[in-house]
Automatic annotation (TrEMBL):
Pfam families: Cytochrom_C. GO terms for molecular function: electron transfer activity; heme binding; metal ion binding. Residues 103-207, 208-306 form the Cytochrome c domain. Residues 45-72 form a coiled coil. The keyword Heme applies. This is Cytochrome C. InterPro entries: Cyt_c-like_dom, Cyt_c-like_dom_sf, Ubol_Cyt_c_Rdtase_Cyt_c_su_prd. PROSITE patterns: CYTC. The chain crosses the membrane at residues 320-337. Keywords: Coiled coil, Heme, Iron, Membrane, Metal-binding, Transmembrane, Transmembrane helix.
Length: 343
């Protein structure tokens, strides 16, 4: 009976640690992050509003302490937050005309051909790369993507936003100040909302209906990130952009993602891909802008590479627990038979 009491105490303490102490510690070490939101307009309006509220709170705290230096910095932060909130809200308001327009696919084909194929390939429609990846990375900082799958990977709203202003759409406008410009020009002043809607409609019309997990990762992530352990028989999957170019463009070399599914986990990766700024404010990594299906495929492929034995582990887990229960029962019965007289 004593052993059962000891077991009960161990179980209770373990559950308290697992369900109480550990979540509390995690909440203190890691700030709350809003869940993944594929409605990027809603997400941007919410996060910009939260940034203003955070800046207002910091200013109030500084004023309470009567710290002039802190007050000056807090006022500057609040002014920047208010300015960005106004900018991002105006940006999404301006996108609505293209989002609600009735598109003309034929006109979109002509526009994409005229405006995009000088930098982007569309292999599926007979527009090959004019330069190899190393050359485009040397010219722009990062290898340019093939547009054949863009209509599959990204939502209509995000594509419209990105064409109009790539820096704001991908949430990296903080990188392009003091005269620096995003390598892709903004088309909001060069094309009408109707023309942008036409271009997006064309990209959606030529997109493949289905893509494998590997194909999605290839098109969405591999321009910057490699997978060192992608295929131990056939070799690695390196990033398309040379290390020197992408390091200069991003500020540091983007990490190899082979083991990130293990070190970060799918929940963290999902939030980070969806909006890196929520988890690492000021990071140079852009918001990728993937729709829900494509983002889930990217994470699934990272699981296939970095956690290829996950299914086997999960299958073995219940069997091992059953073994432990049976072993514990026999151990208890053996102990009882041997120590009955002593007790």
């Amino acid at each position: 009976m004593r052993e059962l009491k000891i077991l009960a105490v161990v179980v209770v303490l373990t559950l308290i640690t697992y369900w109480g102490v550990e979540p509390f510690a995690h909440s203190q070490m890691h700030p709350h992050v809003d869940p993944v939101n594929y409605n990027f307009e809603e997400s941007d309006r919410t996060t910009s509003k939260e940034a203003v509220e955070k800046a207002q709170k910091s200013l109030a705290e500084a004023e309470k302490k009567a710290d002039e230096k802190a007050i000056k910095g807090a006022k500057a932060d609040l002014e920047a937050a208010l300015t960005f909130e106004k900018t991002i809200n105006a940006f999404w308001d301006a996108n609505k005309a293209a989002i609600t327009a009735t598109p003309n696919v034929a006109n979109g084909e002509a526009l994409v051909t005229a405006n995009c194929t000088a930098c982007h390939s569309i292999e599926s429609k007979g527009f090959p790369k004019l330069m190899d990846d190393a050359s485009t990375a040397g010219a722009y900082g990062v290898a340019t993507p093939d547009l054949g799958s863009a209509g599959k990977l990204y939502s209509k709203d995000y594509l419209i936003a990105f064409i109009n202003n790539p820096a704001l759409a991908s949430k990296v406008s903080h990188k392009f100040t003091d005269g620096r410009a995003h390598p892709m020009p903004s088309y909001e002043l060069m094309n009408t909302p109707q023309e942008v809607a036409d271009m997006v409609a064309y990209l959606q019309s030529i997109a493949p209906k289905e893509m494998t997990n590997k194909e999605v990762f290839h098109d969405a992530c591999q321009r910057c990130h490699g997978l060192k352990y992608a295929d131990m028989q056939k070799g690695t999957m390196g990033a398309f952009s040379p290390d020197a170019d992408i390091t200069k463009y991003m500020g540091k070399l983007p990490p190899d993602l082979s083991q990130y599914i293990i070190s970060r986990g799918p929940d963290y990766l999902g939030k980070f891909i969806n909006d890196p700024q929520k988890l690492l404010e000021g990071t140079a990594m852009p918001r990728v802008g993937l729709n829900q299906e494509s983002q889930e495929q990217v994470i699934k492929y990272m699981e296939e590479i970095g956690a290829s034995k996950k299914a086997e582990r999960e299958e073995l887990g219940p069997k091992f627990l059953i073994y432990l229960v049976i072993f514990a029962i026999f151990a208890f019965l053996w102990k009882a038979s041997k120590w009955r007289d002593v007790h």
